[in-house]
Amino acid sequence: xxxxxxxxxxxxxxxxxxxxxxxxxxxxxLDDGCMFRVAGNxxxxxxxxxxxxxxxxxxxxxxxxxxxxMRGIDFVSIHIDGDVALVHRAGRMRFGATEYDAEIMDKMTxxxxxxxxxxxxxxxxxxxxxxxxxxxxxxG
Length: 140
What we know:
Elements: H1 4-20, H2 23-27, E1 30-38, E2 51-52, H3 54-67, E3 68-81, E4 84-95, E5 98-111, E6 114-121, H4 124-130
Parallel strand pairs: 1-6
Antiparallel strand pairs: 1-2, 3-4, 4-5, 5-6
């Protein structure tokens, strides 16, 4: 098990690679059997479907890098408990031409120094609307 400071540094490096669009750098932190998912129910599939394994993760991470600009997102806090990091981030995010306020919480579990599982908690209603999975009523 890495020290809290070491794991906090790895977490920061993972997000830095993601924001910079460094797919190979990002993938270097992931276990070959890593699982990534957005928390939510089956009605928001494929948004909430688990993504497992290096090939599927590479494709998903490339899609996220290409389509979801997170340069305006900053760390609020990083809490470490053993091999688990809880990461709270907030700021301005962009999907295509749409820029909006976002708040994200990730639960990252590490094993043997590599990311084994990441569960991301986002505003799934907002994401589903941006992905044209649902239509939100106009504000009145």
